[in-house]
Amino acid sequence: MNSKIEHSKDNASHGGDIVKYAAATILVLAGLFAWFWFGAPEHASQSAWAGPLRGLAVVVGLVAGLGVFLLTGKGRDTREFLSESRFELRKVVWPTRQEAIRMTWVVVVVVIILSLLLGGFDFVIQKATQWFLGR
C-alpha cells in the first residue's frame, strides 16, 4: 500500500486548534446570520441587501470558515486525505462507454428478471394463503 498516513503522536487538540475551530464556526454562523438578518422584512427596509448579496455573504462565511479550519490539525489531515484520494483515483481503470452501456443493460435485465420472479413468488404465496384460509 502506498499510503503516506502517519498518525500523530499527540491525539489531543491543541489550544490553538480549539480557537481556530471556534473562529471557523463563528465565520460560518456570521454568514448565515447575514442571510437571515438582512432577509427579514423588518430589516430589509433598512438596507438594500438583495438576495445575491446575501448569498455572497453566506459563501464568504463558508469559504472563510473552511479556510480557517484547514489551518488546524484536522484540516491538515483532511487535506492529506483528499490528496491521497486524488492519487488513488488516478489509478482507477474506468470502463469505456461501450462497456458501461453493456453492463447497464445487464443490470436492467437482471433487475427485471428478479422482480418478475419475486412477483411470481408473491402471487403464488398469496393464492396459497387465500386457499388455505378459505378451506
Q: How would you characterize the overall build of this protein?
A:
- With 135 residues, the chain is an all-alpha fold.
- It has five helices and no strands.
- Helix 1 runs antiparallel to helix 3.
- The chain starts with 14 loop residues before the first helix and ends with a helix.
- The model has no long low-confidence stretch (mean pLDDT 86).
Give the helix/strand class.
Answer: mainly alpha
Report the average pLDDT across residues. Answer: 86
- The percentage of residues in β strands lies in under 5%
DSSP helical segment count: 5
Q: What is the overall silhouette?
A: elongated
Largest sheet: none
Q: Name the poorly predicted regions.
A: none
Distance between the termini: 66 Å
- Topology pattern, helix = H, strand = E: HHHHH
Assembly of the depicted chains: single chain
How helix-rich are the residues, as a percent range?
over 70%
* Structure summary, number of beta strands: 0
- C-alpha Rg (nearest Å): 28 Å
